Amino acid sequence: MVAIAIMLFSILNWNPVEITLWDGILVETKVPALVILAFLLGLFPMWLYHRSVKWGLDRRIRSLENSIKSAALAHSRETPVDGAVDNAVDSPASAPVVSPVDSPVEKPADSLSPVDDAQGDTQGTNKP
Description:
single chain, 4 helices, 2 strands
């Protein structure tokens, strides 16, 4: 479809065009060649940018897949292979019992607290 459109455009616009590149350089070319060249000059940088982004994303995906594989291998090494996991899940007596805390534990007083300085000011500083 695209090839047919390019062929039709080329046949209908086969006219010579003079292009002045610099002061002394004059190029005579056909319109389809000029249009195709302009298209390729615009396409090439975008194609390079696309390839670089795709390369970076592929590297990130491979890195994440490798980290998932290594985490899965580490997890499979932690769990025992025999039926000990099933027994631990089935028997609630093997689970540790945590007793609730009856009263909160008081924190020891901070020796650098400003409250302590105001109450125990015995060094004769000039405080009103």
